[in-house]
Amino acid sequence: MSPRLYFPVFALFLLVTPPLSAQHAIIPAPVRAAIQMGAFHIDAETAVLYDSDSADVRAVAEYLASRIGRVSSFTPAVRHYTGTSLPRGSILLSIRSAEGEVHPEGYALRVAPNGVRCSAQSAAGLFYGVQTFRQLLPPRFESVAGRDTVRGWDAKCCLIVDAPRFTWRGLMLDCARHFLDVDFIKHTIDVMALLKMNRLHWHLTDDQGWRLEIRRYPALTAVGAWRREADGSRYGGFYTQEQVRDIVAYAAARHITVVPEIEMPGHARAALAAYPSLSCTQESLPVPHTWGVFEDVFCAGKDETVSFLQDVLTEVIDLFPAREIHLGGDEVPPHRWRECADCRARMQREGLTDASALQGWFMSRMASYLAAQGRRMIGWDEILAGGLPDDAVVQSWRGMDGAVAATRAGHDAIVSPTSHAYFDYALRTTDLEQVYSFEPVPTVLKSAEAARILGGEAAMWTERAPQSVIEEKIHPRLLAMAEVLWTPPLQRNFFLFRRRVQEYYPRLDSLGVRYGFEAPPVRFVAAHDSTAAGLSVSLKAGQPGLQLQALRFGPEGTAREVDVPVALQGRGLLGAVARKNARLRSDTALLRYDVHDALFAPVHYSRPASRHYPGSGDSTLVDGIYGSTDHHDGRWQGFPGGDVVLTIDLGEERALQELSIGCLQHAGAGILLPRSVTFAFSRDMVAYTELPAVTPRQEEKDMARRRAAFSVDAGGMRARFLRVHCNVRPVLPDWHSSAGEQAWLFLDEISVRSAP
User: Fold this and answer.
1) Is residue 206 annotated as a catalytic residue, yes or no?
2) Active-site residue among 331, 433, 658, 702?
3) Which residue is catalytic, options 267, 326, 411, 725?
4) Annotated catalytic residue within 51, 142, 162, 206
5) Which has the closest alpha carbon to 392: 411, 408, 415, 373?
6) 183-212 pLDDT, tens digit each
7) Is 382 a catalytic residue?
8) Residue 561 — left, alpha, or beta (φ > 0 → left; ψ -120 to 50 → alpha)?
9) pTM of the full predicted structure?
């Protein structure tokens, strides 16, 4: 997947000159880069020249001149140039012939004291060269504060030969769950352009909102664009077709293609609220304000549904010039289809065996409609289950298996695995280094199969991310994804990348980007203090340059600063705050601790925890630290389907009083509380005495995330060994949208307290 670069005239130069220094924080890193002595000075005499009759090339020249003009006391002249030599003091954008075998999006940029020449095979290549040239100028050049009085700019002399590794370098913005305004989207496009990203995947419809004006069906926005929140307020919004055309044109001017996503046949509640006849039940349902997967989907058995969605796609095609149209196809519960007479009749007529095959038929119909209009369908990797429509592109999100299956079947694939690409995930699971470690091409693929990996996308879902927090979730992680999708893997090094990121922050500041942290800003490091029979906790910064502060909370919630390491006894709450500058301050991280009598006691497991959710190892359940409501926080151990029995050796016989075990409920992720927990005691690990089983207080169908403690009073019973039996559902129950799939049990702390 390495780009083909043929610039032999520069080969000797690259061999004898040093690489760009850390002060030239170009992101993504160029394929080849070297520096020279001196600088090129931009002033009122500088002209931007172009040597092609192409309107697209002229547009790039005008773009560069306008970028200079917006922050300077002058705007360079833009002129067509037919000469062969580089006029002194000018910036020349030059189109090379195809005979040079330059990568279609590649460029060569040479900055010398007497002038700048950027050569490429296409306007896109020139545009990317201009983005690199911008990053050779001071961060102040990116100021969004308005026209400046700067009379000149200096760019360090250098030679850069560059081209992208992948043709698809994208960011997915979900505007359905939370509405994002037009200015914010344009601002995001500007930042993407600087990073040489070229696809904006615009998620426009979902259960919680329909955001695209469809003139033939006005209720989609009159009804489907608005929802009633839990507090009774009305929330929503949509984009008019004029606004959509404006955004598409704005992106195109920056060589970014906008790819719309119109979800079907699932994630359709907003559309069904507007047009109930398109559902299997025809029941009038509100636009939901909660998250998750809903049973009500488009009825695949009705011809009306097919016609409706084809009408919608007709208007979508008119609005978006992109070759690809994303149709979703993910998370489609089969319940309604199984019960629907129309869907069962459709399955019988078409010879379909199950709901998966029905979805395959449905998506194929839509893909064929797009193909007839010269477009092709993208779908999430669930579309693999029902058989791939011809020419479909698979976007693999549930790991990389979807990409492997698609490419082996002869289909193109885009990779966005949750493990590396989901920026709605917390930093504790997907930090900057995790994103940077992403390898978009699965190693199991043969070369011909690997060539079908078009590239990848970062995904910014907004269930829990209103516009006010999106930028801090995207940045600086988008810097890592941009480099992963552009720079060859052998030229990537996280240590050097992180140094460049530190130098890049002032540029983001000038751009007005409200970036967040690179990793969880502060981490608690707890150790067993055996001499004091307690915990010793210190703090560790998640990135360079942070100032940390530890806080001890009193019984009434008051906090006071304490020095670290801090010795802990009993139960309580420890807090920590990280700061980098006046703007960047973390929320207060909290550590709930419990120094109990089984602290770091040996634990025997009837079966091991999943390798994906190992917690902190064998001491996780007795380390004195409680987990949060996020099962990714490293404090939980996860066990797939089936009972779990734990045996703890307390080391000596004790009169036991208070016993508990912490469990997690997160039904949306397939994590359920145990049906019951039974505590048993023994003096010799042979004969056990059981207490009555403890059952959960929460409703099993409760979709909220919560931690629940199963507790008993042992009444002073003497024992050395404690056995905890968690009785668990092996599979998810019928009421769950993923009924029949493996259920999960998550455990954190077993707390033991002896009688006084």
Assistant:
1) yes
2) 331
3) 267
4) 206
5) 411
6) 999 999 999 999 999 999 999 999 999 999
7) no
8) beta
9) 0.89
